[in-house]
Specification:
It contains 6 helices and 6 strands. The strands form 2 sheets. The protein has a 3-stranded antiparallel β-sheet with strand order 1-2-3, with no helix packed on it. A 3-stranded mixed β-sheet has the order 5-4-6. Residues about 160-165 have low confidence and may be disordered. Helix content is about 45%, strand content about 20%.
Length: about 170
């Protein structure tokens, strides 16, 4: 690992522990030349996922882009960051469990919509308005009703299982 301060190649690991997300390892390192300390985070490299857009273009799966979209929908809403991170982790895990590397963007959008229903109804409607390209006020009302109805039934039974059913029934 190269030192970010002096670019020297010789660094040693002082401490290693699981990161808070339990999907990576946090390492404290020390440079042999300048003696400065820094932290690195290691992730397992998995197969690259490609997202197939509506127009047929393919682009690499971008977790950061997914995060930005959900954060935008949740802007100024009482949704905790850890809940959003958990949603993204669940979505990415579900995509990787599909045993294919090319995923239609529609499927990712549907998974985000389902997850936003459980996080925040307003965020769900915001995301839906962009994702479904609302053109009339009535579409907002219908989306709000759909989210409210979903949350009422979800409180009676587990909601996240529905996303698992969506991914299992997704066309190839």
């Amino acid at each position: 690992m190269k030192c970010p301060y002096c670019q020297h190649q010789d660094t040693s690991v002082l401490d290693s522990r699981p990161a808070s997300d339990n999907n990576s390892i946090r390492r404290r390192r020390k440079c042999a030349r300048c003696l400065k300390r820094f932290t690195t985070k290691e992730h397992v490299e998995l197969l690259d996922l490609s997202i197939i857009k509506k127009d047929g273009r393919s682009e690499p799966f971008d977790r950061t882009k997914l995060l930005r979209g959900i954060l935008k929908a949740c802007e100024k809403r009482p949704v905790r960051r850890d809940k959003i991170e958990n949603a993204i982790n669940d979505i990415e895990t579900s995509l990787r469990l599909m045993d294919r590397t090319e995923i239609p963007s529609r499927l990712v959008g549907d998974m985000v919509m389902e997850r936003l229903k459980t996080l925040d109804e307003v965020a769900y409607v915001r995301f839906a308005s962009v994702y479904r390209r609302f053109t009339e006020a009535r579409q907002f009302v219908e989306a709000a009703r759909e989210a409210a109805k979903f949350n009422k039934s979800a409180s009676q039974k587990g909601a996240w299982g529905r996303i698992r059913r969506i991914t299992a029934s997704a066309p190839l």
